[in-house]
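Fig. S4 source data, part A: sequence.
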Amino acid sequence: MARLDRLSYTSPAELLAEKFHMHIKLLQALNPGAHFDRQGEKIIVANVLGAMPESVARLDVDVGKSVVRGFAKDGSLVVAYPATVGSDDNPSPSGTMTVKAVVKNPKYFYRPNKNFQQGNNDQPLDIPPGPNGPVGSVWIDLSKEGYGIHGTAEPELIGKSSSHGCVRLTNWDAEELAELVHRGIPVTFRE
């Protein structure tokens, strides 16, 4: 991956599945015989439009239930997203930190001396941006170095696998959350 210029969508069907918040197999099942690479093709997709809050005032990461919740200033719950959190070997952090920055379409910098060890690779790698990159289409940087909330190219694994300590959301949920957070809001990890 580090040798590529970009980790773009692999097909028009993959792009459409992401855009309409569904697994590519569901898109294909809803549209048997459809040719997703033809202009003017009519397809059935999920209706993902809805009213969104203007922002969230704080985030809670429920590690035990694998969910990220966003709350308004008045304390009301305004968003909730299924998530993948750390594992026994690479646990998510605990306590409260803050959002440092939001990076859309991020590069990924693998540093085995700072991050986890990926197989036998002991060399640093700069992985190009794109929705199929290791951190998906957005990175929400947290104040604890090396940790963040990010997207994934494998939405079907959310809540079913473990991460290397970060909080992994679907690309579409991470993109939505990125529009709702701002620098300095608290993010609390709870068991």
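Fig. S4 source data, part B ends here. Residues 82-185 form a domain with the L,D-transpeptidase catalytic domain-like fold (CATH 2.40.440.10).
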